[in-house]
Amino acid sequence: MSFVHLHVHSEYSLLQSAARIDGLVRRAKELHYDTLALTDIDAMYGAIPFFEACQKYEIKPIIGVEISVESASTRLLLLAKNQSGYEGLVKLVTICNTKEERERFITYEELAEFASNFVIISPFIEGPIQAAVMSGQDALAIYKQLKAMTENVYVELQPIRTREARQKLLDVSAFAKANTIRTVASNHVQFLYPEDMEATKTLHAIKLGCSIEELPTVTAEENYLTSPEEMVEHFSSLPEAIRATREIADMCSFEPPMNELHLPSFDVADSKRELAEWCDRGLHKRYGKAITEDIQKRLQHELSVIGNMGFEDYFLIVADFMQFAHREGIPTGPGRGSAAGSLVAYVLEITNVDPIKYGLLFERFLNPERVSMPDIDIDFSDIDRDLVIQYVANKYGKERVAQIVTFGTLAAKAALRDSARTLQIDPRKIDQLAKLVPSKPQTKLKDAMEVKRFKELVDGDEELARLYRIAETIEGLPRHTSVHAAGIVMSKERLDSLVPLQSGNDGLYITQYPMGVLEKIGLLKMDFLGLRNLSFMQRVLYLSREQGNAIDIENLPSSDEATFKVLGDGDTSGIFQLESQGMRSVLRRLKPTSFEDIVAVNALYRPGPMEQIPVYINRKHGKEAVQYPHTDLTDILKPTYGVMIYQEQIMQIAAKMAGYRLGEADLLRRAVSKKKREDLEQGREQFVNGARRLDYSEQDALTVYDLIVRFADYGFNRSHAVAYSMISYQLAYLKAHVPHAFMSGLMDTSLHHHEKLADYVNETKKMGIAVLAPSVTESHVRCTLEGDAIRLGLGMIKHIGYRAMQQIVDARREKRFADFFDFVDRLQHVLNRRALEVLIVSGSLDDIHPNRNELLASLDEALVFAEKEQEKRQQGDDFLFFEEDVRPTYKEAKELPLLERLRLERETVGFYLSGHPLEEAMELLSTYKRMTIAEAKEQKPHVSVRVAGLVESVRAIETKKKEQMAFVLLSDESGELDITVFPKQYKEHQLKLTPGDQLFIEGKLQEYSGELSLILDKCTTVETLMERAEAEREPTLYLFIPTVKEKTGLDELKKLLEDTPGDTKVVMKYESTNQVIRLSEMWNVGVDASFITKLKGLLGVKNVVLKNQRV
């Protein structure tokens, strides 16, 4: 007798199961199961991964679902018997998940349409038949209703756990026996091992937002993946229920269709002819009279490959929605990825990169030697991207276009915090623990156990140990669904015949299968990417046009000196791909003079090929001879000074030297990049044989092949590099020629990224462009140009929404604000007290009244005044009977102290607007050769610098050697800088590293992942420097005590000092020990010429120095 688990939940029953699919199937194999079902709740997210896991472990999969029927609390198990059953599951899950939130269930009528291809089981807990039996309702009528749909209807029985469950088991068994209804044994699997029960209950509590103690009884210790022997023993008195599991398993025989293409179609009679006609029109539009025979041949070749692969409809669809974007003025990128190498894409205006001009290869995009799905990823303005998606959905039908699901998971800290809430652990306790979890991405809880203090807390507290066990079990499980940032899937058929769907945003559906699964079942994914730089560029062009300087961004001069100067100076903030400190350093050394230099540096600035950057630069500037692996490769490698940079160069070399077709060359490139020995040897033999046929020596062929192998995995896609370098060049041109519009637009894109915004504001000032503070009387929501200055937008202010900001602007357009009271009166309906306080302390009301403290003091009166004015307006003509109010006046108050004013600015705007806390020490700091942080960031790595600033935050960590070190964020008037404090320095300076303190730091710059930080060497507080300076300004007498006088002259010196009391401080230094002693005030002396003469006679003329006082 063999048992099969037919009621099984995986992690894709979100927050209702701790069983991961791979572990589930692996454990089933260990227990010698040959068949296993998956029945997640109202979802099929895991269906294909489950099928693949079953293939891996050689287990027969049964795909099913536990679906809500007639209400959210009643469910049926549906198991697919065949292909039609699987399609029925897909349909019903879609129906269930695309209804209104409160109606997420299917009806019996909807079930009936597909039921003949299911095995239907009424579950023991939530099943409608069991519920009717226990409540005394007509359970037989429900059974007959299901039986009318399909012969295969069963009633589930589960192992006895409690007295109530035993009674239910007896009642349901008796009902089934009395009515000759088949029963089936089950264990309602929710986790793998008995010890996982608590973690599963925790998941349920997280889902319901309650504690474990408050949970209804839905999970028991027995709900694990039991062995067949255990189940047979549980149901020893009901062997027919065990036999039924095998009977059902034998009915179900189905494998999901994989790798069958379901390409979308374009609504024309002959897509091949249509594409050719579109291309012909586009060719003449792009090239006009410059069309050559080679261009014609290239176009025909590409069309032939596209046709042979059956991708005509795909190109027409992409071209169509790109035409929509162009018509609507939606900015699109010049191209992305290998698609920029297609002439067809260029003439259809899918891309804006001429592959002929830039020597790009179609075979890198679509390889006739290797049939694969086309992949044209499109960049749109991030503001307008959704308009294009809506256009596609409306044109082809929302049932054929959907967004793609992704899953938010329980990361390490979330697993801890969420679990702690269900266990009702003191929040302060969990805060202490969670803060010790390293913040770097992909951190696991096991990594946190490497932190000494974390491990001590867990090991020393049973409550935290229990928490850790639970959190580690649920860590990484999916918590909720989300939408893929860019992916869209399309099909000729209705998607709900291929993939389960659920409701998304804006009326669109979301697939329940993630991107990788969709590709496996043959659906075509397109990426509609939102690129901030395109909306930024659009804004700059608009501002420039408003200033009377219209720029044709698609037809810029290709060798503009001013543009290359911006790049060569490393002034690349805001310039796509070129902003990092490391890239700026490269550009300063490179001094680009051509577009190809930008393409090359974009391709080289990555781990691996970065080592070739100095070679490229030196060869460009004639400091190193250009060398080629063979003279016949000169034409291919000359543009990059003999450095192999692009994947396309590898393909061209293989074609030139070994006679490869370009498609074959692309296969070679892919193969050798994987570095598999067998592929490398096969590739070497093929390359050498091909080269010898073309009369190259074996040694030359081996040399070049080894070079290809070396660079194959470093080589960059030239098509992508050219396309993205176009955006870089365009933005650099705008920065060079319309800097006001550029910086305004740049700040506009960073209104809510306050650290970047502060950097951009400081750079703008360095460029000689005035930056005006946000003002309710002048600002718009976004940044604007105001003469030769840039006015910051109201949108940068924290804690106030866009609608309120826009209403301030609208109210001002109607009539200027007379005073603060008028402002509050007219905006009281959208600005509450907190919002008004934020506007005051941010300085946004300074133009109305400059004393912020007086505005705060007058706020109550202003609100009362506004309320009365509103009441008058509501009374209409009756307001004549009101007593005439005296218009309020400002309450007098001293202006806020400088540091308090600046603190509030930073709190509400994100950075200091009207100054910096260091202001009082600026003059002093300049004497210490201090750099601003912005100036320090312009230096090269390993340079020693001195900076001063405010400690914004301190993050202490423990090293692998169990030593304490820290990362400090320091800010000054120009920006922020990360400071690394290693253990030795941390031990010495720990007490100084306090948020809010002002520090003067010496250290050496280091670069990591393209970003500069400072390694602290020495550190002191700015306060100490100021005290030292103050002390040095006081009258002080410095006495140097020669060794010979230490025994013979000290008594006489003591008497001289005692006999001449006064206000001048005395500092002594002993020659023998170099010890410096500042005498206490009781030894202060009165200084005159006679006294100084006596001292010099005693100690020597050079050993007596009086500072800051004349005699």
Q: Which helices and strands, and how do they pair?
A:
Elements: H1 21-30, E1 35-41, H2 47-57, E2 60-68, E3 75-80, H3 83-97, H4 108-112, E4 118-122, H5 128-135, H6 139-147, E5 153-157, H7 163-178, E6 183-185, H8 197-208, H9 228-234, H10 239-251, H11 271-287, H12 293-309, H13 312-327, H14 343-347, E7 378-381, H15 385-396, E8 401-409, H16 412-423, H17 427-434, H18 445-448, H19 452-459, H20 462-474, E9 478-490, E10 501-503, E11 509-511, H21 515-520, E12 524-531, H22 532-546, H23 561-568, H24 581-590, H25 595-604, H26 613-620, H27 634-637, H28 647-658, H29 662-673, H30 677-693, H31 698-712, H32 718-737, H33 739-749, H34 754-766, E13 770-772, E14 784-786, E15 789-791, H35 802-814, H36 820-827, H37 833-841, H38 852-875, H39 898-909, H40 922-926, H41 933-937, E16 944-958, E17 964-972, E18 975-981, H42 983-989, E19 998-1008, E20 1011-1021, H43 1022-1033, E21 1036-1041, H44 1045-1048, H45 1050-1058, E22 1061-1070, E23 1076-1078, H46 1089-1099, E24 1104-1107
Helix pairs in contact: 1-2, 5-6, 8-16, 8-20, 11-13, 16-17, 16-20, 22-32, 22-33, 23-32, 25-32, 28-29, 28-31, 29-31, 30-31, 32-33, 33-34, 36-38, 37-38
GO biological process, one term: DNA replication
Family: Belongs to the DNA polymerase type-C family. DnaE subfamily.
GO molecular function: 3'-5' exonuclease activity; DNA-directed DNA polymerase activity; nucleic acid binding
